[in-house]
Amino acid sequence: MEQQTLKSRSEIPEADKWHLEDIFANNDEWEKEFAHVEKLLDEGKKFQGHLADDADTLISCFEWMDDLSLRIEEVYAYARMRRDEDNRIANYQALTDRAGALAVKVSSAASYVVPELLAMPEGKLDEFRAASAGMELYNHALDDILRKKEHILSSVEERLLAEVGELAEAPGAIFSMANNADLKFPSITDESGKSVELTKGNFIQFMESQKQEVRKEAFQTLYSTYGKQRNTWAATLNSSVKSDVFFAKARRYPSALEASLDDDRVPLKVYDALIDTVHEFLPQMHRYVQLRKKALKLDELHMYDIYVPIVPETSMTITYEEAKKMVVEGLRPLGKDYINILEEGFAKSWIDVYENEGKTSGAYSWGTYRSHPYVLLNHQDTLDSMFTLAHEMGHSLHTYLSNRKQPHLYAGYKIFVAEVASTLNESLIMEHLLKETKDSKTLAYLINHYLEQFRGTIFRQTMFAEFEKKIHSVVEEGGALTAENLSEMYRDLNARYYGQEVVLDPEIALEWARIPHFYNAFYVYKYATGFSAAIAFARAILEEGEPAVTRYLEFLSGGSSDYPIELLRKAGVDMETPVPVRNALQVFSELVEKLEKLLE
């Protein structure tokens, strides 16, 4: 049998690689900047103990911190993205480690600032604000610091926490290296009888195969490989959760969840209401699962049957070039300015397109304030990959517009709103395709794909969010996380979310072992809230036109100039109510009904 293996990095055409030279021309330039940042660290000492002297001293300190932050972003982003090109290259592993260590030093060097601000005599900051127009820029940042006063420690304690930060990154770093650089999967037999190396990048492609035996082999091969190190994965995740709990306790929060939410000033009720609202709609999820079983004509629906398209006759092959055109057409309702920036990204090497040996799996958007955004892809010529391109370019244009409109201090948007721009792009493109498609089989295929977005983004991510809440509660109550209890909790949640129509294959209980998001705790719920907000924006843009586009683009340009809940509310979406999530899930229910009729 013919063996298909991944290409090496050198075999990928230059036109399909991102151009990191736009950050640093070469490694020597990176080294110079690294040394410059090291020198800048000491400059902060002259401000220590003097922040209450006068407004000018305080402003100079803020400017030093902002410059340091901007520079370390570039140093770290370049090193990490170089490593992501091929995780096996020792030089870029070393650069990333050095950049991470330097980032901790940067954090430590400025660790006295917030405690010193909070120790100022009452009214002193107000006096400074009144005395200097230069203080106006920092009003929102200062308000955010002051609201967290009870969670800020002394200068000595803050410095200690900053230095412990590097240790706290260890579980995620260990998982990333084991998962991306060391883990190798056996080959499996594809639909045409060829022996193909299983990778994390092509796993979902195999799960969408029309042949159940291919799906089953890919599923069992993937999880049996993870299963060989199940206790290591459990120990690594346990350490990560313990770290979250430690920092929450150190900062006097009731729980790690509340500590995480407070960074975005998101009330706990938003998280809990998401889970409760999704639970309300689980009967609709079960109805969709039942439809899948019927449409696939299966006596038993297994977990490896969840991803295969219900309408096989219209499975689409979409090249990268075709994907770019589809993205542009679908996003035309956002206006010429948005499309021009999008096309600039396609033309000017923002994107690293194809999978290669050692490359980090999945997809992301990144970049720095002074560079353009960057996108890492592992394109597979599927409809899903086209939507991934749209998704990541949504992030990139959010970044581009915020960077253009906001000063560096407020350019970085909070994660709570990060998934809105990405999923809005997907929603607009899907609405365009549904409107333009006349063939009933293709229409059914697209509705199925849209339903999969709902399943993967609202239902699945909320299940992840519920899992994260449970595992942190175990540690907070004095328990430990083991491969056995992690698998038991994960299996029980799958049973609840997928219902009785699905055979819970034992392998699915191990899925927690391969989810990188669990090392960035309480992140995934934002996919679900972001998707819900995106559905609300998409409907408004298609119904209202220009006024809704204007509100939306102002939101994209907002960065972190206000709290995320407020930025969304100004643009017309109130996430403090369950309405956006409920309305999004109502769309899901309507789509299930449409698909049922099309498949009759």
From TrEMBL:
Residues 206-585 form the Peptidase M3A/M3B catalytic domain. Its cofactor is Zn(2+). The keyword Cell cycle does not apply. CDD domains: M3B_PepF (cd09608). Gene3D superfamilies: Oligoendopeptidase f, C-terminal domain, Oligopeptidase f, N-terminal domain, putative peptidase helix hairpin domain like. Keywords: Hydrolase, Metal-binding, Metalloprotease, Protease, Zinc. It comes from the Bacteria. The keyword Hydrolase applies. Residues 116-185 form the Oligopeptidase F N-terminal domain. Binds 1 zinc ion. GO terms for molecular function: metal ion binding; metalloendopeptidase activity. Its EC number is 3.4.24.-. Pfam families: Peptidase_M3 (PF01432), Peptidase_M3_N (PF08439). One of its GO terms (biological process) is peptide metabolic process. It is an enzyme of class 3 (hydrolase). Belongs to the peptidase M3B family. Has oligopeptidase activity and degrades a variety of small bioactive peptides. This is Oligopeptidase F. The lineage of its organism: Bacteria, Bacillati, Bacillota, Clostridia, Eubacteriales.
